[in-house]
Amino acid sequence: MQDLIRKAMLDGIELRQQCTELLLKPLTDAADIMVQCLQSGGKILACGNGGSAADAQHFVAELVNRFEINRRALAAISLTNDASVMTSIANDFEFNAVFSRQVEALGRDRDVLLAISTSGDSPNVLKAIDEAVALNMLTIALTGRDGGKMGVHAGVNVNINIPHASTARVQEMHITCLHILCTLIDERMFGG
What is the pTM of this model? Predict the structure, then answer.
């Protein structure tokens, strides 16, 4: 048991070290896009499946409420929260439309879609990206492994990719990246 604990901890440390330089530009670029959106009165929509859905909700909570400083609420919506909306879309259309229909309803020109997928290949997240592009929204992808289809999608403005095969390690880095984005947004918009 202790060897498993050590391995998980050391693998996580090694991945953080590998990603430190690799993620400087995509995280900075993503923060710039989000800050510009929020400062111009836009909003951030976030989506993902499973653990990525939880990450979308977590990120939105940090923006709407607060992260590390008390400041005004920021406009963000998680597309994973409303069971009635999601199940009605899945029932009347298809599960692959659960996010894209919400993007169609809520997204506006120059809003931002944060699309999270550890594989980069989630069909419903890819469809949400397509809808965001159609609405002239900006899109930030948070992916793992080789980035999948999201990593090469022409509509993705910034891909924050964690190049690792383990979903658990990728998700650990995703939440780190989301916390870094919160810090950058707070610093740029509120000075700390």
Answer: 0.96
